[in-house]
Amino acid sequence: MTDxxxxxxxxxxxxxxxxxxxxxxxHLKGTLEETFSETFLGSHLIGNYLLPYTQGISEWLKASNxxxxxxxxxxxxxxxxxxxxLLAFLMLKAILNKVGVYHEGKPCSFTGLTIYGGGLIHxxxxxxxxDAEHTKLSRRIHADFNSRELTREKREEYMQKTFxxxxxxxxxxxxxxxxxxxxxxLDVFRAVTGDIEVITEGSGKAKRDIIQPSLGLLQAVEMxxxxxxxxxxxxxxxxxxxxxxxxxxxxxxxxxxxxxxPYPLVKASKKAYRSILKGRVADGSVDRVLRSINGLQxxxxxxxxxxxxxxxxxxxxxxxxxxxxxxDRKVPDPAPMSLEGLDxxxxxxxxxxxxxxxxxxxxRRIIGKRVxxxxxxxxxxxxxxxxxxxxxxxxxxxxxxxxxxxxLNPQGPDYVKGILHFAEGKTLGQLGLYWLxxxxxxxxGQDKLPLDERSQWARDNTQLAQSVARNPLQDLSWTxxxxxxxxxxxxxxxxxxxxxxxxxxxxxxxxxxxxxxCSGLQHFSAMLRxxxxxxxxxxxxxxxxxxxxxxxxxxxxxxIQNDPDEEKVALAKAxxxxxxxxxxxxxxxxxxxxxxxxxxxxxxxxxxxxxALKEGVALPVPRDMMWEFKMYGADKVWxxxxxxxxxxxxxxQWLMTVxxxxxxxxxxxxxxxxxxxxxxxxxxxxxDTRSRRIETFFDGARVQPRIxxxxxxxxxxxxxxxxxxxxxxxxxxxxxxxxISAAMDAGLEHFAAVxxxxxxxxxxxxxFTRIIREAFVQMYEEHDxxxxxxxxxxxxxxxxxxxxxxxxxxxxxxxxxGILENQFFFS
Length: 827
Description:
Strand content: 5-15%
Structural class: mainly alpha
Distance between the termini: 38 Å
Strand order of the largest sheet: 1-3-2
């Protein structure tokens, strides 16, 4: 243990070194390439300067245009109608890009900086004029820019050619005028902040003025840099158990040395909250919460080297494999003819813009996802030398548990989960062999079958598992499964177990996961005793697994079949041919309890259609009709959801109303709060802000930086819209904590958990599935969570508003004890 402790300290020191190294490397690169304003630290500095600099420019413009003489007056004429916030934003970028505030680069000449800053503003104004005169063309151009991620220089070159084609002059300011504008704004910056200095170098013809950062600015950058480093701490898994959460570690975390920045149990929590939590810990009222989080972070994990070897080879060959990111790009469907002539604010036009933005964002994220995959594999290789590793956890404001290490952890995507297994194996036994078979079927994609049929599926596919295990790079059938890397890990174990005379004697290290049937709907059905909703999410005794996503798909299909709109006949027929399946409706139904919107439904249906096309389903309509096709299907899904998910809407509306009343009351505490059934306090703050966006066309990408000033008043609208998802998330977090705490009481020691998916060794599943159901039933039999929510909210609502509090939603006739008899509640 002593040797491992020393190793742990060295690893924590290495993680700190990597944090600092990466942070400084990125910012040094930004300095040398004159893109410092786009770095994290540069953006942070812009945010600090933007409001006072904007105010200074506003005052200067007012004074300059009041008749005062001088060179600045000419500059004021050129920019008198430009938003001061835009002027501040662009000039700040010029200053930070050119002046060596982070690292001493080449000297920044006064003239060069003023031309550069004035040029940014000139180019912005020209683009705005073009956008006003040629709106549709401008939007097409910028959509193309964003899809191809062109640099600023390439964009400018292209736009200059476009201007020429339209007989428009690109440069309308002379260099002298650019210098005048840049000088005026630079002078305002110096007057407002005092953070730059002008010095004169050389003599005679070699004489020139140089801009330097002041000592105060350099010190501010240094201090901000230290702060930002701490925010971006690299967290590794540990090789010894993390420090357990207790009254002594509530604000320091689970790591063992000063090399890791301390962190509280509840991330981003305020001092007042931490004081309340400390009291709860002291009186023991959150003991089960702490015990469950400690159980998660004390679970021993190890790297599954065989799975890692295989997935690294698949990644290198760019072979499609589940969610493993590949080097490919998507192209949005062309805009349908039906959008022609519609106002830019028309809902269909907005929806199409959101869809295109999602495609472009996905393309941008692909690179980041590939970097994250490489990071996960690198960390896995690094920690594969250890017999056991651990993942320190903390909580978000709702109580959901998250591992601190990023990249490699048990909550990662399939290609990360599959390269981790428990460090210690446990003998299967007959029940464990049964559940290991169920796990294999689940990973393959047969998770909708009855449990016995899943177990039989595994036995029937033993030869497949053996073939894959012998040579996973030759038999690639595993790469086409729902969860391919986890299925590969299962193949290795299933094949090894069946190489023994008695497979039940095999010591398995895999975690067998049990997933909720749409957790949010299960919680709403329980709190409302909703028998209809409970039936669809497996909360009543039933030998047949119910599928709420399939039920919504069935209703949506009926709406399509019975659509009386004669103009939609072709679209309806196309959907009947294409097929409305559970995959089409799943994500839209999943997010409904978390305040999902019609627009999000459109996006999810669109993604489902694209996924089906990738899998070989025939194109249902011509390409130029694809968007209309998706919109039509999304409309039917949205209308089908409330016909299946009946009571949840009532509870969500009640929560929103109460939360809005708290926001209108502006209580002294400036928050809404509630306690989970295990006693964890949850505080939610949604403040009013004074903000507006600045649009720039050219600055590296089409960006909309926002000037935001937080106010000390609650925003009733945001309080209302955010409360339902936060409330339900706090309840699913509580269920997880109650389940793990009870399982530890029963002697279980190793756990995998992702919010509403709980996993243990195969041999423990039979006992664990019972514990999951019992913990859920106990939670809702002992607590009326809506009444308790109202009890904590009532003191925060002004007396004159309390008469507006609606009655608690009516309860139905669901018998919670039926959950104990339904094996599909979590399966």
